[in-house]
Structures are given as structure tokens and as C-alpha cells.
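so the lab meeting is tmrw and i was supposed to have these ready like two days ago... anyway. pasting both below. for each one the top line is the aa sequence and the line under it is the C-alpha cells. i havent really looked at them closely yet so no promises
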Amino acid sequence: MLSKKVTDCNAHGQDSSYFLGWQAYEKNPYDDVHNPNGIIQMGLAENQLSFDILQTWLDNNPDATGFKKNGQSVFKELALFQDYHGLLSFKKALVNFMSEIRGNSVTFDPNNLVLTAGATSANETLIFCVANPGDAFLVPTPYYPGFDRDLKWRTGAEIVPIHCSSSNSFRITKSALEDAYQQAQKQDLKVKGILITNPSNPLGTSLNSHELDLLFNFISTKNMHLISDEVYSGTVFSSPSFISVMEVLKNKNLINSEVSKRVHIVCSLSKDLGLPGFRIGAIYSCNEEVVSAATKMSSFGLISSQTQYLLSEMLSDGKFTKSYLSENRRRLKHRHETLVKGLQKVGIRCLKGNAGLYCWVDMRHLLSSKTFQGEMELWKKIVYDVRLNISPGSSCHCSEPGWFRVCFANMSEQTLLFAMQRVKSFVESMSKKNSPPRHEHLRLSHARRTKSLPKWVFSLTSNQLEVGDLR
């Protein structure tokens, strides 16, 4: 007597190892005082490094938190019915913030902005707007595990992976794009577009100009859409600089062209401003039909007027936004370096990253076998024995076993250093476990030395070697 959505909830993706790790953490969360042996949450891409900056602004702007304007209360105005188009003051402040993040190289029109309750809603709404059930989107791997839920569960759309490889640092190639498109055709899927995350989640890298050129040439040739999820745009903390798809449109003189009507951006304040609980997401599109339909759909997931008012006041403070973006990037860079250097000390390397709240970590040398089964065995040891919740590459659809996403910004530096101590102890214990006993080590060392000796040496010294072996 229930709907198929209820009876087929597994399609939501909650049984993924990405979410299972969270469940393990929630049953035994680390606390440096009350539960020092608990699991440290390193699977949550959340930015807690700059809350003090936000708090200082709130303390210095009591009118905003008290819902006042020029000393007069606006609470009643905010509490009563609001149109689902959103507050114009907030939309203007948000597009200005988006432009500032991109170095003011491009500008955004608030009329092309649709507010949504987080980036999850924005991505799903865009899929509803441009695809029918059974249509497909190409998505580069590895990708955010939540996309299996956000893009597919309610829309009925399909994801076809664009397989990227560690051989070129998981960069998108023309051959990978073509292979994914051909694979979709073999499955009789109509490809409506490509969805990218830029900067990438989970790689922690921003797309370069060559990759963006490939993507634009591809969607132009194939007459398809491009959705650019840019929710980590404000977390780029080192070179190369971030290039938004809006900059590409501008540089290629494609603004207001037919191609521009098939290019859409997803943005959010969850990562850039560290406010995931506020549920601030948005769609930016130059396609009037998409904006109109998405705005109507947004009525099913509105952002509260009080939240919009508070953030419009905060983002309209140019001195604050400039200071916040600069200091937040500095802190992210320092924390990223702390994790990378800590892992390097125990022989674990990371993909070179320049953005995000995480590192893409190479643990292939720690696998018992170079398989996804070996990856899951290692992941379970790290979660349940080392007590660190990290995300295995397989949950991100990585085509190579042994890669993991490790988050670094949702904890104190003291907790991160403690997590590194746990990793160090684990790697050392594995090294001891895999090292042969001393007598076996000596025998192997002796065998390596003698293997390269001429045959006549063995005939002259065979008796001596036999005697030596007995000692």
C-alpha cells in the first residue's frame, strides 16, 4: 500500500560506505575529554576554521541578529508571507559575493539567480529542469558520493562515469569524455549533459583551462548542457587560481549565446562561508526557461526570510567579506599543509591540491591486495581499529582501489594532530606485521648479495657458506 519510493529506499544511497562510516562515528564519536578513544570524524567536509570571524561580525552587528533595520524592528515583515523568489536584497548581496570570490573578473545578474535550500536541492532541481527520467548525465570520477542520491533518486536520471586516472592526476581528457559518451549510447541512454564539481570534491583540485576548453568544445559539439557545481569556489587557497565557467563564457565571447543558455552554476554558502546548517544554495543560469521553472520548484524548499535577511546584512559588508575570504583561505592552506606533512612523515602521499576541505590520499601501498575488496578491508581497519572515519575511493566511484578522501577542516588542530598520531601508530604496526623475522631478513639479505656473484665464487666457497649457515 506504499509508493515505490518508500519500498525502494536503498536507491537513496544510504548503504554506501560513505554513509556507513558516518553511522560508525555517530555511535562512538571522539571527544578529547569524555570519549578520547572514540572515532574521529574525517569524513565530513565542513569548515569550522573561521567561526570566530563570523561570531565577531555577529557581536558587532546586533541589529542584524535582532532583526532590526536602522534601529526599527523588521521581525513582523520577515515573519509574514514571503514570495518564493526570495529577498532581492539577499540575492544582490549573494551575487556580489559570488563575484568577489572570483576576483571580480565576472559579474552576476540577481535576476538569473534561483535560491534553494542548499546545493543538494539546487543540483536536483537543475536535473529536473533539463532531463527526463532515463536520461543521463556524464560525471567525472571520482565524484561526491551524494550525487547518486541528489541527481538520480527522485529525478529518475542516470549517471554515466567519465573515468579519470591517477596517471595524469585524475584530469579530464578528451578520450575519457568520448568513452563515457559511447558507453551511454551502448546503454541506449540519451545524454543531456555533463556535471562537474569545480573545485573537485573529492580531489581538492580546480579544473585547468585545458579541461574547461575540452568541456566547452564537447557540449558545443554534442549540443548538451553543462552544470558546474562550484560550491567550493571560495576555498581555493593556492595556485592555480579558480576559473569559473562564467569566466570561460566571458573569455570566449559566449555570454548571451545559445551555448550560455546550456551552462548552469550551482553555488552555496555551506563551504565558502561555513554555514551548512543555514541551507543556502542557489542556481545561476542565463536560460530564462530554466530560471522560471526552477523558481517555481524552489517553493518546495525555501530559505527562511530571517536567514536571508541576516545574511544579506553580512554579505553587504564589503570590509567583512574581503577580510573573511582572505583569512579563511590562509587558514585552509595552513591546515591542508598540516595534514599533508603529517601523512608524508609516515610514508603516505596526497594528490597535490589547491582547494577544498579535504585531501585525496594515496594508500595503495597499504592494501593487502590491489582490489576494491582490499580497499574495503583497509577502510574497515581504519574506521574500527584506528578509529578514523575517512571515505574510501570506491564510495566516490574511483576506478582505482586504494585512494581515500580525508577531511581536515571540521576539527581543532589538536584533534588533527592526534589523528596523525593514530595513523603513525597504525602504519608502524603494519610495517612490523609485514616485516620478516630477523633470521629471515638475514637470509634474504644474504641471498640478494650472493645472487649477483659469479658462479665460480659459489664453487670455491660452498663449504664455507654451508658452515656459516649452521652457525
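ok protien two:
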Amino acid sequence: MNLRRDYRSTRAALFDGIEEGGIQASSYSSHEIDEHENDRTIEGLQGRVNILKSLTGDIHEEVESHNRMLDRMGNDMDASRGILSGTMDRFKMIFETKSSRRMATLVASFVALFLLVYYLTK
């Protein structure tokens, strides 16, 4: 019996790594394979993060460019509004005086004639 126990303990020591699904050593290599897959996945994710980072940088530059363009357009609109209000003030002043009404009708007729000629030639 003692011999049998020694045989079982020796056998158990030899095949200690065997489990129902396979050898425990293969479990270690499976763990190693999982680590390599994780490393590859992490590298892929780092690549995607770098792409997203450059994309957001490009979007930021584009937004800044559009903001500058909108600021310039707003300033131009303010300048145009100032010019237009000055022109409207001059028209009001012209129509308030009777002698200037003749001049205004003359200018309006020239503008109408110009538009008519422009329309006919086009």
C-alpha cells in the first residue's frame, strides 16, 4: 500500500498541471496569447486615438478660421450699414427741399434708364 501511495503522489506530481480542458501550461500560453492580443488591441486603439486627436485639431483650426471670417464679415456689415444710413440721410435731406425734388426725379430717371438699357443688353 505504501508503494501505491508513492505511485499516486508521484503520478500526481507529474500530472499536476493536467486539468479537464487541457494542460495548465497551455493555460499559461493562452494567457500569454491574450496579453499579445491585448497589446495589439491597445496599439490599434492608440492609432485610432491619434487619428481622432489630429481630426479634432483640424476641426479646431477650421472653426477658428470660420470665426475669423465671420468676424470680418460682421465688421464689413457694420461698415456697410453706416454707409447706407448716411446715404439714406442724404436722400431724406434731398426730398425735404422742393428744388431738390427735381434733381431727385432727374437722378431717378437716369437710374431707371440705366437699368432698362442694362436689362435690354443682357
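from a quick look at the 2nd one: The radius of gyration is 44 Å. Strands lie at 18-19, 22-23. will dig more after coffe
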